Amino acid sequence: MFGKLTSYLRSRSRARKLEHYAIPDDLWTHTVAALPYVQRYGAEDQAALRELATLFIAGKEYSTAHDLPLTDEMVVSVAVQACVPILKLGIEWYRGWHGIVLYPGEFLIRRTVEDEIGLVHGVEEEASGEAWERGPVILSWQDVSTPGAGLDSDHALPADTYNVVIHEFAHKLDMLDGEPDGVPPFSRVLHPGVDAEQWAEGFLSQYDVFADACEAVPDSAWDHPERLPPRLRVIDPYGCEAPSEFFAVASEAFFVEPEGLRRHWSTLYKALATFYRQDPAEK
Ligand SMILES: [Zn+2]
């Protein structure tokens, strides 16, 4: 009885949110027109994406820093892109946190690093995005609106693979089961028959292959990305920092440049297709 009442109330609340936060047609069209990797989805998927983005907007709180005026375009662009990874998972995969903070451009983050002799130092560095465990996602609007703006010589990649929104929200999915480790949680219902341990093993061995391949590249070669082997041009080399970063940058490639990722990293592509329950290279 209560089960029925709860699901009735939940569907009422969902319908109310979809109505109250509905994204106007012209804003939707305009937003999708600026996102080629979203356009590859068919009409049915785009309709589902629009619903998810609406629920996302209803459930999250946006704010800005440094007096950046918050516009509907910003709200919708972040929502649509954030919802691409959860298109076949569902809005509840972003549960447990609320804030989206937009900075006009790159911002400083503080983190601690340990040096060779074990001393811990506080360092400040510029970032285009940051995701806090059970906390907000922070994004540089400049990087969201003009992918490629954050690229420098450390990111020797074709500009169209870079996507800070996918990157940070992939971290959010990874963090659903605690500290980011590159291995997101799996659902018995949505991922039937998937052995999470086996998945982790396969993914981490891909990380090792990638880190070794990056390591083998002489430092000077990063200044000439066109001379890098093609398989190192699909995934941001930042991925060799840690398995969690590898999951985030591989997710960027999976959604933004799926054909390239499938061609050069087919095992990794399949692992991500299993988790995200999508096959974007087939669209
Ligand atoms: Zn990251």
Sheet with most strands: strand arrangement: 1-2-6-5
CATH architecture: 3-Layer(aba) Sandwich
Domain module tally: 1
| Backbone CA Rg | 19 Å
What are the segments in which pLDDT stays under 50 over at least 5 consecutive residues?
149-156
CATH topology type: Collagenase (Catalytic Domain)
Shape category: globular
Record field, number of beta strands: 6
Bound molecules: zinc ion
Mean pLDDT: 91
Q: So, the CATH homologous superfamily?
A: Collagenase (Catalytic Domain)
Class by helix and strand content? alpha/beta
What share of the residues does DSSP label as strand, in percent? 5-15%
Q: Can you write the helix and strand succession as a string? A: HHHHEHEEEEEHHHHHH
What is the distance, rounded to the nearest whole angstrom, between the alpha carbons of the first and last residues?
A: 42 Å
Total helices: the number is 11
Walk me through this protein's architecture.
The chain has 283 residues and is α/β, with parallel strands linked by helices. It has a single domain, classed as Collagenase (Catalytic Domain) (3-Layer(aba) Sandwich). The chain has eleven helices and six strands. A four-stranded mixed sheet has the order 1-2-6-5. Strand 3 (107-114) and strand 4 form a beta hairpin. Helix 1 crosses helix 4.
